[in-house]
Write a structure and sequence with these properties.
By secondary structure, the chain is of the alpha/beta class. Helices cover about 50% and strands about 15% of the residues. It is built from 15 helices and 7 strands. The protein starts with a helix and ends in a 9-residue tail after the last helix.
Length: about 375
C-alpha cells in the first residue's frame, strides 16, 4: 500500500509538469520533496510504515509543517518526525546555512539602499518575497548565533596548518573597501581535513593575522608540525610571533609564479620554470638550488639572487613523510573551496558591511568542513 501511494504521488508530480510546464514546477517540487523526506525517514527508522522488523530504531511521529521560500516559489512542506526526535531530512539541511547567508547578504543590500533594480530582482527571486529591515535583522540574529558558536568551538591537536587569504568588496562609510578574509585549514591526526576558523577585517594585515592566529591557539589548537601558506604581507611576523619554531612551507606554485617576475627575458621563462620544478622534485633540493644560482648568476643576476633568498622557503616539506609532500607542497587544496566562496560572493557583488561578509563565508565554510570531516581521509598517518 505504501509503495502504491508513493507511486501515485510521483505520478501526480509528473502530471503537473506535463500539464503546466514550468508553472507547475513549484507544486511538483513540493510533492517530490515530501516524498523524498518520507523515504529518508523510512531508511532512518529501518522499516516501512506498519512493518514489523528487528532492525527498527524508532517510530514515525507525524509531520511538522514548514514553508520554504525557494527559487520556484513557496513550498509547503511536511517534515517527517520520529518518536526519538533525532531525525531531520538531509534534503533540508544540505546547503541551508549558506543559502540563508546569501539571501541575507543580498537582502541587506536591498534594505540599506545599496542595491540597484537588479539586486532587488535577485532578492525577490532568492527570497520569494519583499523583505523589510526587521525581517533581515531577525533572520541575521538567529543565523549569526549559530555561526558564532561554530567559529568559537574548541580545537584540538592539528598536524598541519594551512593558511590562506582572499579579498572581497565591502561598503564602509559610503566608500568601497577591500576586506581581507583569512581562513585556516587543519589536517587532523586521523587524516581528515577541517576548517578551523575564519576572520574578516579591514585592519592592517599583520594585526589581523596575529589576532586570528592567537584566537586559534586560545581555542586549543596545538601540536602543529608544519604551516603551509603563501607569502602574504603581514603573515610572516604574525606567524613567527604566535608559532615560533614551527617550520613554514611556502606555496611552491606561487613561488614558481613569483620567479617569472624576476626573469629578464620572456624566452627564458620555460627554462626557468623547468629548472625550478627540478629543484622541488630533487632529493638533494639544496644542491640543485646551488646549481640553479650558478647557472643564472651571469645571465639573470636578479633571478639568481631572488632564488637564493626565496626558494629555500619552499623546501620545508622535505622534513615530513614523503607520502604527505605532494598534498602539502602548495595551497592548491584550497582552490575548490575558493571557487565555492567566489560563486556565492559574486551574487552579492558588494557587501553592505563586514558582518554580512563574515556571515556568508562562515556558512559556506561550515558546510565544506562538514564534508571534509565526514568524508574520505586526506592523509594517512603511520601509527
Amino acid at each position: 500500500m505504501t509503495r502504491q501511494i508513493q507511486s501515485t504521488n510521483l505520478d501526480n508530480a509528473v502530471q503537473l509538469l506535463a500539464d503546466n510546464g514550468f508553472e507547475g514546477m513549484g507544486n511538483a517540487m513540493q510533492i517530490l520533496f515530501n516524498e523524498a523526506m518520507k523515504l529518508e525517514r523510512n531508511e532512518y527508522i529501518g522499516a516501512e510504515p506498519y512493518q514489523r522488523t528487528d532492525e527498527r530504531r524508532s517510530y514515525a511521529n507525524g509531520f511538522k509543517p514548514k514553508t520554504v521560500n525557494s527559487r520556484v516559489g513557496k513550498l509547503e512542506l511536511k517534515v517527517p518526525q520520529t518518536r526519538d526526535g533525532d531525525f531531520y531530512p538531509s534534503a533540508l539541511e544540505r546547503g541551508e546555512r549558506s543559502e540563508r547567508a546569501l539571501k541575507l547578504a543580498v537582502a541587506e543590500m536591498y534594505v540599506q539602499g545599496v542595491s540597484t533594480r537588479k539586486v532587488a530582482k535577485i532578492t525577490a527571486e532568492l527570497c520569494g518575497l519583499e523583505v523589510s529591515s526587521t525581517q533581515v535583522s531577525r533572520a541575521a540574529k538567529l543565523l549569526d548565533e549559530e555561526l558564532e558558536a561554530w567559529r568559537n568551538r574548541p580545537l584540538e591537536q592539528i598536524e598541519y596548518l594551512i593558511l590562506d587569504a582572499r579579498y572581497e568588496k565591502v561598503r564602509v562609510a559610503g566608500s568601497v573597501r577591500d576586506c581581507a578574509v583569512l581562513v585556516a585549514i587543519g589536517i587532523q591526526p586521523g587524516g581528515h581535513r577541517s576548517v578551523l576558523g575564519v576572520s574578516v577585517s579591514l585592519s592592517e594585515a599583520e594585526v589581523h593575522w596575529r589576532e586570528f592566529l592567537v584566537s586559534l591557539k586560545q581555542r586549543g589548537l596545538h601540536g602543529v608540525k608544519l604551516i603551509v601558506s603563501d607569502a602574504h604581507e603581514g603573515l610572516k611576523a604574525a606567524r613567527q610571533a604566535t608559532f615560533a619554531g614551527v617550520p613554514w612551507q611556502r606555496c611552491q606554485f606561487h613561488l614558481a609564479q613569483n620567479a617569472m617576475q624576476h626573469t629578464p627575458k620572456v624566452e627564458m621563462r620555460k627554462h626557468v620554470a623547468d629548472d625550478i620544478r627540478n629543484i622541488f622534485a630533487a632529493r638533494n633540493a639544496h644542491e640543485e638550488l646551488s646549481r640553479f644560482v650558478d647557472r643564472y648568476k651571469d645571465t639573470a643576476p636578479k633571478l639568481a639572487a631572488w632564488a637564493q633568498d626565496n626558494i629555500p622557503e619552499g623546501l620545508a616539506i622535505f622534513d615530513i613523510p614523503n607520502e604527505h609532500r605532494k598534498r602539502l607542497r602548495t595551497t592548491n587544496m584550497l582552490e575548490r573551496q575558493n571557487r565555492e566562496l567566489k560563486r556565492r560572493t559574486r551574487v552579492a557583488t558588494l557587501f553592505p558591511n563586514e558582518a554580512s561578509l563574515l556571515r556568508l563565508v562562515t556558512a559556506v565554510l561550515v558546510e565544506r568542513s562538514d564534508e571534509w570531516e565526514t568524508g574520505m581521509k586526506y592523509l594517512t598517518f603511520q601509527k
